[in-house]
Amino acid sequence: MSDVNERTDFDSPWKEVLEAYFPQAMQFFFPETVALIDWERPYEFLDKEFQQIAREAEQGKRYADKLVKVWRTQGQELWLLVHVEIQAQPEENFAERMFTYSFRIFDRFHQPAVSLAILCDANRQWRPNSYSYSYPDTRLNFEFGTVKLLDYESRWTELEVSENPFATVVMAHLKTQQTRQQPQERKTWKFSLIRRLYDLGLQEQDIRNLYRFIDWVMILPKALEAEFWEQFKQFEQERTMRYVTTGERIGYERGKQEGKQEQTQTLILRLLQRRVGELSLEVRSHIQSLTLSQLEELGEALLDFTAMEDLLNWLQANQSE
């Protein structure tokens, strides 16, 4: 077993970086769609609208989805559904789910959505891009745009010279996959990718945003993480940065996030105990393995629990990948 513990909630950094750099993401991954859009007009994330159509989707899966309203150059509004498929393994019903989301958007809001998918898995053969069925009198062929991050392995030089933030995102993702059993090499790449942010001359906020992504996905064993931090602090001092080190700031923010998770976990366990009775060690352990977003979902769901069976059913339906 690898000495590196993989995080299961890769959706969080993807959602953050998509929100921070949405136009750049579109330019990097889907340039043909970008050509339709008037970026002089503000775009809008339709999170509430997406929650309405995704409420019945499978629970326990890790997705990063964004429904975004943009404006076309001719003046009409255009809805974009951008889905990041974060599952480690290909999903059999993926194309059907893309169609279902598109249909629900059209059915509920009377808006067609340009459907786009970013595939993060490690299976080179899995490339879903359509959903169809055909009968003598009825046919459907739904196609959607896809990019496969693995394809960028052969375009590494392109990534290195690109100033688009998503070049860094893809590089971090690929090196995380490639160093799954090699923590020392991961540490080397993590430092190299972060140093690249400074070499590109990025602004402080961009460095912090991309550092957060790299730091979140390229997790290291504790001993190597400590080595990395020392190396990074020394690097920033040598660069004579005029602000508190990026590492310290992000470490503080990450500490706040982890502290929030611990507090939420404690509260949920206490509420469950009052709601459904004594929790076994196995159930407690399962709850402690949930991500912060899953804990928050459980906090809402437990209001309807009346017995231990309700909790067990919820945990079964919300298995972490």
Automatic annotation (TrEMBL):
<dbReference type="InterPro" id="IPR025587">
    <property type="entry name" value="DUF4351"/>
</dbReference>
<dbReference type="Pfam" id="PF14261">
    <property type="entry name" value="DUF4351"/>
</dbReference>
<feature type="domain" description="DUF4351">
    <location>
        <begin position="257"/>
        <end position="315"/>
    </location>
</feature>
<protein>
    <recommendedName>
        <fullName>DUF4351 domain-containing protein</fullName>
    </recommendedName>
</protein>
